[in-house]
What we know:
The complex is a heterodimer.
Chain A: E1 5-7, E2 16-22, H1 26-34, E3 42-47, E4 53-57, E5 60-64, H2 66-69, E6 72-77
Chain B: E1 7-13, H1 19-27, E2 32-35, E3 42-50, E4 53-59, H2 71-83, E5 87-93, H3 97-108, E6 114-119, H4 121-126, E7 129-131, H5 133-140, E8 144-146, H6 155-168, H7 184-194, H8 204-213, H9 216-225, H10 228-240, H11 244-263, E9 264-266, H12 274-282, H13 285-325, H14 333-351, H15 354-370, H16 372-386, H17 394-400, H18 404-410, H19 417-426, H20 433-447, H21 451-477, E10 486-489, H22 497-529, H23 541-553, H24 560-568, H25 575-583, H26 587-598, H27 601-613, H28 618-628, H29 631-658
Parallel strand pairs in B: 1-4, 1-5, 5-6, 6-8
Antiparallel strand pairs in B: 2-3, 3-4, 7-9
Helix pairs in contact in B: 3-11, 5-11, 7-8, 7-10, 13-15, 13-16, 14-22, 15-22, 17-18, 18-28, 20-21, 20-26, 20-27, 23-24, 24-25, 25-26, 27-29
Amino acid sequence: MTDEVVSLVSLREGEEGVIQAVSGGPGLIGRLASLGITSGIKVRMVRNIGGPLIVTTNGTRIAIGRGQAQKIVVRRLTAGEEEDKTA
Amino acid sequence: MTADGELLVALAGQPNVGKSTVFNILTGLSQHVGNWPGKTVEKKEGYYSIDGRRIRIVDLPGSYSLTAYSEEEKIARDFIINERPNAIVLIANASAVERSLYLLAEFLLLNVPVVVALNMMDVAEQQGVRIEVRMLEKYLGVPVVPMVASKNKGIKELVSAILHISEKGDNFNPSLADVAEDHRDIFAELAALLEPYIDPPYLIRWTITKIMEGDPDVTERMAQSVPADVWRRTQAVLREHEDSLLAVVRGRYDWIEGAVRSATSKFKRGQILFTDRLDDILTRPSLGIPILFGVLAVVFAITYGLGLPLQQVLESLMRVLVTWIEPLLGQSPWVRGIVVDGLVGGAGTVLTFLPVLFFFFTAMAFLEDVGYMARAAFVMDRFMHFIGLHGKSFLPFCLGFGCNVPAVMGARILESGRIRLLTIFLTPFVPCTAKLAVVTLIAAAIFGKDAFLISWLLIAGNILVLGFTGMIVSKLFFTPMHMPFIMELPFYHKPNPRTIGIVVWKRIIAFLRKAGSIIVLFSVLLWLLSHIPGGDIETSILGSVGRFLEPVGRPMGLDWKMIVALLSGIAARENAIAALGVLYGVGEEGIRVILASVMGHATALSFLVMLMLFVPCVATLVVMKQEMGSWRWFLLSFAFMLFLSYAAGIVAYRGALMIGI
């Protein structure tokens, strides 16, 4: 298992990661948390071609502006790695 | 509970969980739509009656959480705190139960009985998620009613759960989400400090949680009511534990995790969904953007293909109507003028656009309902950033092509006040159906076979002006601009005719209400101004104003009649044509024939450019002021449009003369 910690924007399409931290004001942290984007949650990158990106988590797909996504730190999961989302 | 035994129930839920479907089923035609007092947020309420009991149902604005970051969230929680409803119905999405439970965790802290309506059970099933409803109930300590609202399933059970829980009253003892374990002592410390200063209707546990979350509203209120030394100690604790917010969030997710683990199971691995396959195409910019423009082209083709013939039918009906009522109006030229030229000619012409708007709004509501507009917002986001906005503003702009009035009101979907303001500021630059009608008519009369090209250039120019204005205004007034763009992309689903119908109905009503009040008033006023005192337009007040302004119009080649026509466009754009007809003494029909002889090409061009950019119609102005909520911004936008149309008119005229059009 690799332990590569990167910003959400560097996940490629199809890759998964576990969120480590969200930096930013309470507004951004709270808003993302209420949509299911918070530490310990597993996300999958669906669309990442410049501009905003789309991730899925727990059956929801969420579009996030690039600026906001840069503030989300994830641990990249290598292909095939099954990870409990409460990691 | 009110004296007559009426129950008050609040309907809550995150966006895209089918809340309006449930609300519509419960309240049917009894619903009343207004605004929350002093807010530009829509308030819907209605009644449901059962066995002689009335349940008053208030639809809380959809929000993802209950922290006061947006007006919607503040309204929802203030309503619960101040009105203490008998019950809250939280609509949850069974296919994304984690997120719905997040909002539930917040509502439970407010100590009002909650019923969870677990909607979209069918979608969850399709995705291979099974939910043991009894287990979930046991874990949460809250009644849970499984539903498929789109198929009318579970409504009866929901109502009986509401009645049951309302009667139980205080015997409501749900499981609550704690803050994360490592922060419980901090919670206790803050509670000990602040408890003496928290008075009803505010609850201790809720208030402390909000303080830890850094909620601006609660923090502000406590700072006012707590003695200075206690507040200083509170702040010190909070500063020392900057991660309090995360502890609250973590606590909630631990609680959610427990619920999910005890009550849900995946019985098959998530298959590739229809939504995934469609999104693979529609959210890829290289495909999604051309498809978006294709979709919009189809929308316009339908709108004008079906709407315009009907509009012409209505127009001729209107003429027939006039021949019927004219003899009934007696001899007075004033009565005849006000009714026939003012009411029918002014407001009536506006009404003939109803079919066009109907087709347009239906197409848009369809695209919204099936989930497509969220994807359109996504692919347009990158372009909207250039003009200081983000993808979500694309929807109000689209509506603007129909009518600017619902477009300005549509800007309410934007959470950020600044983005909403800028979107409203730019909306008048979206050419609406009325503008397009006037432009195509005049262009056809004057430019002959080049009319099509000229019309397209004008529309494209209008949109470019929107873009440049956005760039300039956002640079000047909104720096440094952070544009948080976070948006859920709902699943695609079958269109629900009822939901679409209600959306279309609401937008049409918004248009009709303006047409019925402001436009009628202005049409009559305009007619009077053009006939007082002498009875003819040459010597009227409006005529004098036009003559007075004639020197202003000279640089762009306009005579006073054209200036008057431009001014009449403020009542409603369509009036510009009628005014030209009256001023040149040929009537509305005749104007198409003689227009070419009174307007040169350069003059016509500057007239059209000004018409596109000029102050919008009075109905739009009224909602702009209302939705901006600020005179300063409203006047700024008004002055800007005046200046811009004037400058552009001169440029168009001089430019046209120079290149010899």
